[in-house]
Automatic annotation (TrEMBL):
Residues 5-240 form the ABC transporter domain. It comes from the Bacteria. Belongs to the ABC transporter superfamily. Macrolide exporter (TC 3.A.1.122) family. One of its GO terms (cellular component) is membrane protein complex. One of its GO terms (molecular function) is ATP hydrolysis activity. This is Putative ABC transport system ATP-binding protein. SMART domains: AAA (SM00382). It holds the Pfam family ABC_tran. It comes from Granulicella aggregans. Keywords: ATP-binding, Nucleotide-binding, Transport.
Length: 241
């Protein structure tokens, strides 16, 4: 199978004045379509930086990212934006919901933006939205604005927003960070179903080793490098939360 995401000798250095931080260096991996991969590692090990580089939200300093056979570096900014909109669903640590729109409005606008990058325009899949909202426990909250929702509810709206466009790649940064066990389970199951049933490729960053076990494969980062690769259990283990 041709991998959908390939990182080759990936490096990212942040520079501010004379200070340099090598947030990523020499990172190599390939992810198959439909695979669910968890990335774990201590704070500051480069997980979020990897998320931003893989999503084309920031440029690598060295090496390459190839998404569905296309090297990011060979695309113009406009082409990269188009590819990101059409292919990638983001779940950010800080939700990034628009404050003036309701939860539903936030979901609808994400769908409209994804359509801007798509070859063929698709209507919003109301059936999928109803299913996601029900499973995430936000069905009754869709007409609320973000400031009327709890942090956990905002997180779940952001997850519905990312999944409703059925992106071929889902990048999730700490998607269960603000959730209790019940809601965390629902989110993990949903990501697993996205990968198993809909063949979406899921890359999830998490601090939680038990949550990471839901994945097919777990990559561990330390000091900007991948230091370990292991198989996940395919289910979350909830022994410590
Ligand atoms: N915009 C930035 N400018 C300068 N240094 C940065 C920037 N963003 C991250 N860093 C540094 O790069 C390194 C990797 O940070 P990153 O946020 O990728 O780690 P992380 O593993 O996601 O951490 P956490 O688990 O705490 O979110 C850290 O040393 C961090 O201080």
């Amino acid at each position: 199978m041709t991998p959908i995401i390939v990182a080759q000798n990936l490096g990212k250095t942040y520079r501010s004045g004379k200070l340099e931080v090598n947030a990523l260096h020499g990172v190599n991996f390939a992810i198959e379509p439909g695979e669910f991969v968890a990335i774990v590692g201590p704070s500051g090990s480069g997980k979020s930086t990897l998320f931003y580089v893989l999503g084309g939200l920031t440029n690598a300093t060295s090496g390459s990212v190839t998404i569905a056979g296309t090297d990011f570096a060979k695309l113009s900014d406009a082409e990269r934006t188009k590819m990101r909109r059409a292919r990638i669903g983001f779940i950010f640590q800080r939700f990034n919901l628009l404050p003036t729109l309701s939860a539903l409005g936030n979901i609808e606008i994400a769908h409209d933006i994804a359509n801007l990058g798509a070859e063929t325009k698709k209507p919003l899949d109301h059936e999928l939205l109803a299913h996601l909202s029900e499973k995430l426990g936000i069905a009754g909250r869709l007409d609320h604005r973000p400031n009327e929702l709890s942090g956990g509810e905002q997180q779940r709206v952001a997850i519905a927003r990312a999944l409703v466009t059925r992106p071929s790649i889902v990048l999730a940064d700490e998607p269960t960070g603000n959730l209790d066990t019940k809601n965390s389970d629902a989110v993990l199951e949903m990501l697993r179903d996205a990968s198993r049933e809909l063949n979406q490729t899921v890359l999830m960053i998490t601090h939680n080793p038990e949550a990471a076990q839901i994945a097919d494969r777990i990559l561990t980062m330390r000091d900007g490098q991948l230091v370990r690769e292991e198989k996940g259990a395919g289910r979350a283990l909830h022994t410590t939360y």
